[in-house]
Inverse folding.
């Protein structure tokens, strides 16, 4: 067995020399903003909002969404040439950690929008990116939030929707049929975060349900399109303020100009349709799972901080809890869990910067020219970056030029991050409650909410089982010729 | 709990299962909405009729005698379906046992003889060890030499439902704490809104602010800690039984679901990683059940150092239940996180139950310190 490659082992060391120094100060600035937002907006409302949703699970908290919109958070990480704030994508994770440490549901109300952004971006369809992202930026000017959701999961396909090998053996049911000038969509998507709050829904469907990975299509569907409607909102244990919606497509017509990716667009690429479907999924999850890792780091930190505050003010057996040796060790364990979760999302981000999503935008020439170019010039470049030329350029850079090993490195690290950070978040929720006993059970002490909220992290963006299998496929077992991921031996 | 070879226990277990399936299961989601929905008074009355609120009492009071196993059997069965009712039985039995151990038969008989559940029930702060905390309530004698309680007692379970509460309080000039019975509906007690808690929503608690309410003493500050220990030694087995019930319920729901749900072209139970998780859940539940059974026997027969075994089993069962119910959600994937299934409630309830009788890490430390004594 060959030892692990340097590039897999020491991603951050490799990245430290190549990442523009300006990103560090920018990330510091973004983190400070995250702290301020968490302190001023999130913490004061987190409990009240959670309790309200306990009472009325159908409540949609437009108030928070509008506030986040006013703070510019929905366009902050969109490219400047599409009207966004142009902040480097890597800085989003520390921001998300700050917000999650106070409320995972509110962090999702922001973060899930970027799951939609990431999905559209992974198609590298510059024309649609320009149209949709400009609407998001416009929504910030008008005060009417324009959010994007991602709709992949179906009633009969959760885990299966995350992996082509499984998809082809499963029962995908969202059918897309070619018609004059576009496609018709029929089917139901479930558990779609922010569904009811979003204007755009990046939707995945299939032309041939018996060969889904070879016929996958990605569409941008706008709320209000005839044939598209919202179903129920799920009754969840936690992350209550972030709705999980059912989306219903009933002969919903989507015109060609909103087709982000289909077989006609795949045809110019050297990978097969099936391979490109997996590559696009990998692009999406390589960033989104790092984002979930940041949710995990935040939830783990929130639980730790509440536990530490409690231990500092509570006497047990006549001594402050924080001065019991066992409690100090337990708090140190929790601190370690937060730090480990953070390290995994940063390492994944470095992998994305060198080999994945941010390789172009995170390169020094691109980063500095975008950062310092005057706004009017960037506005003029919008047409260029929203053109067919840009689509070809983006696809050449990101799809064609990406090696298989690079896709595996980013996807592998993202899975490692996802299941590590989220398991640690749940672990810290458990530990905090054990440390706090009776007090921890109370809603007003916040840790029980952290635990309820954190449990979801082990499920979405691929269950932690799927992510372990993906890490095995991409990195852990990649060199083992005998290994066949996603096959499993039949039960005796 | 194992009931093999014991007809009486088998009957009791079947009665509990029948009650859980008929009176608790159909409204489980609705009942769990409390305090944002109605309280399940009707189910509680049925529990009273079935004798479940008297299980901890002596036979002369229509109870099952001093043993702990019967109560464990019932709580295990209830928790497989819905743990809130078992939380009520736990709290009530804890308080009844305090009264019994203190020899306060009069109050106990008076409460037990009432004809409605709310009048029978006794409230108590069961989620801590009063020997560990700083007391905010104090007991003192008034100028007519009667005991009165003043101050705050947080998280009094059933405080908003029960007629009487058994409360710990400090006593001026002494280090320990005593136990006192008060009228929970006394005008000198102000109750908070129901505490919004992680789990056991239908076993609600309130914070009490007390201003000189008359109190019947059960134990003075020299004996309060001993009385707690005596009662907690046995009651921790009931917490263990609740944990075992949750583990079994969670496993069963997970197994049933995994036999129906298909992913990747086969039933998910056939994916060997999922099989392994289910196996782990089942192994832990069985192991905890067998150990609990043994510990209950030891307790009922007063075997040497039964209380150490009880602590070991209770602590282990409670932490295994937290793991098992976490996996119990995971096996169902997204739907496990939703209210329609019992798994998310079991997860919350298991964590809540782990907090019974004091901080779990302190209970572990005390387990060893007591052995070293
Ligand atoms: C609140 C919430 C928000 C969500 N938000 C979104 C969203 O915005 N957009 C979106 O598209 N989706 C979303 N999801 C869906 C989420 O990604 C899926 O729930 C997840 O992928 C798991 O799918 P499932 O729930 O169908 O579980 P299943 O796939 O049915 O899995 C059930 C169990 O079987 C296991 N399992 C399945 N297959 C295998 C296998 N091959 N090997 C071993 N074990 C296996 C799983 O690990 C799990 O334990 C959300 C889900 C929730 C609950």
């Amino acid at each position: 067995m060959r030892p692990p490659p340097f590039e897999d082992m020491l991603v951050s060391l490799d990245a430290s020399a190549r990442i523009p120094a300006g990103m560090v100060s920018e990330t510091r600035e973004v983190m400070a903003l995250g702290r301020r937002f968490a302190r001023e907006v999130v913490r004061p409302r987190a409990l009240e909002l959670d309790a309200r949703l306990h009472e009325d699970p159908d409540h949609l908290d437009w108030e928070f969404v509008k506030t986040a919109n006013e703070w510019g958070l929905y366009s902050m990480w969109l490219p400047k040439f599409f009207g966004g704030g142009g902040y480097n994508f890597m800085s989003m994770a520390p921001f998300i950690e700050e917000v999650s440490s106070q409320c995972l549901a509110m962090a999702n109300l922001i973060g899930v929008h970027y799951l939609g952004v990431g999905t559209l971006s992974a198609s590298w369809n510059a024309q649609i990116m320009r149209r949709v992202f400009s609407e998001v930026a416009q929504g910030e000017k008008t005060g009417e939030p324009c959010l994007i959701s991602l709709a992949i999961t179906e009633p009969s396909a959760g885990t299966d929707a995350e992996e082509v090998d499984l998809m082809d053996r499963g029962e995908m049911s969202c059918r897309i049929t070619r018609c004059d000038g576009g496609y018709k969509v029929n089917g139901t998507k479930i558990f779609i975060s922010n569904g009811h709050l979003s204007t755009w829904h990046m939707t995945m469907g299939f032309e041939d349900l018996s060969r889904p990975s070879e016929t996958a299509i990605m569409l941008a569907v706008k709320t209000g399109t005839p044939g598209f409607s919202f179903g129920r909102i799920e009754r969840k244990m936690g992350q209550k303020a972030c709705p999980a919606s059912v989306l219903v497509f009933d002969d919903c017509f989507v015109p060609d100009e909103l087709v982000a990716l289909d077989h006609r667009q795949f045809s110019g690429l050297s990978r097969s349709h099936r391979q490109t479907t997996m590559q696009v999924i990998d692009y999406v999850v390589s960033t989104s799972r790092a984002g979930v890792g940041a949710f995990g780091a935040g939830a783990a930190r929130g639980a730790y901080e509440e536990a530490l505050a409690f231990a500092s003010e509570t006497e047990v057996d006549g001594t402050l809890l924080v001065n019991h040796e066992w409690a100090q060790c337990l708090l140190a364990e929790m601190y370690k869990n937060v730090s480990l979760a953070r390290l995994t999302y940063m390492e994944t981000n470095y992998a994305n910067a060198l080999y994945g999503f941010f390789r172009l935008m995170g390169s020094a020439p691109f980063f500095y020219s975008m950062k310092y170019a005057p706004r009017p010039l960037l506005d003029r470049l919008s047409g260029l970056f929203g053109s067919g030329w840009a689509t070809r350029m983006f696809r050449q850079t990101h799809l064609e030029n990406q090696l298989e090993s690079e896709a595996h490195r980013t996807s592998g690290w993202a899975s490692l991050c996802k299941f590590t950070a989220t398991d640690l978040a749940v672990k810290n929720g458990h530990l905090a409650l054990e440390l706090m006993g009776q007090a921890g059970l109370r809603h007003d002490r916040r840790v029980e909410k952290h635990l309820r909220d954190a449990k979801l992290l082990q499920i979405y963006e691929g269950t932690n089982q799927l992510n372990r299998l993906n890490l095995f496929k991409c990195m852990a077992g990649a060199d083992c010729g005998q290994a066949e991921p996603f096959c499993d031996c039949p039960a005796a | 709990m194992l009931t093999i070879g014991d007809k009486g226990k088998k009957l009791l277990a079947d009665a509990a299962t029948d009650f859980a399936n008929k009176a608790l299961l159909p409204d489980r989601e609705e009942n769990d909405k409390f305090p944002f929905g109605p309280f399940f008074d009707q189910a509680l009355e049925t529990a009273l009729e079935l004798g479940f609120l008297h299980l901890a009492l002596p036979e002369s009071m229509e109870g099952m005698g001093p043993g702990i196993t019967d109560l464990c059997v019932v709580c295990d069965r209830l928790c497989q379906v819905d743990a809130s009712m078992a939380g009520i039985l736990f709290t009530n039995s804890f308080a009844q046992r305090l009264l019994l151990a203190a020899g306060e038969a009069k109050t106990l008989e008076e409460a037990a003889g009432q004809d409605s559940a709310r009048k029978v029930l006794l409230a108590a702060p069961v989620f801590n060890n009063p020997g560990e905390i700083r007391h905010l309530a104090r007991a003192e004698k008034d100028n007519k030499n009667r005991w009165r309680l003043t101050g705050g007692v947080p998280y009094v379970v059933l405080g908003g439902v029960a007629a009487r509460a058994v409360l710990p309080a400090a006593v001026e000039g002494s280090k320990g704490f005593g136990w006192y019975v008060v009228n929970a509906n006394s005008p000198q007690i102000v109750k908070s809104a129901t505490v919004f808690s992680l789990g056991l929503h239908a076993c609600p608690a309130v914070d009490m602010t007390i201003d000189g309410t008359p109190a019947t003493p059960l134990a003075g500050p020299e004996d309060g800690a001993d009385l707690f220990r005596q009662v907690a030694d046995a009651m921790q087995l009931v917490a263990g039984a609740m944990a075992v019930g949750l583990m079994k319920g969670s496993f069963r729901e997970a197994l049933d679901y995994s036999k129906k749900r298909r992913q990747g072209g086969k039933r998910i139970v056939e994916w060997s990683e999922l099989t392994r998780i289910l196996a782990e859940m089942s192994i832990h539940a069985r192991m905890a059940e067998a150990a609990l059974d043994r510990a209950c026997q030891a307790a009922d027969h007063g075997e040497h150092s039964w209380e150490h075994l009880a602590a070991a089993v209770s602590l282990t069962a409670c932490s295994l239940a937290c793991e098992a119910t976490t996996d119990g959600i995971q096996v169902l994937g997204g739907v496990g996180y939703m209210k329609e299934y019992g798994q998310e409630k079991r997860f919350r309830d298991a964590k809540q139950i782990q907090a019974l009788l004091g901080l779990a890490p302190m209970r572990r430390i005390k387990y060893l310190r007591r052995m070293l004594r």
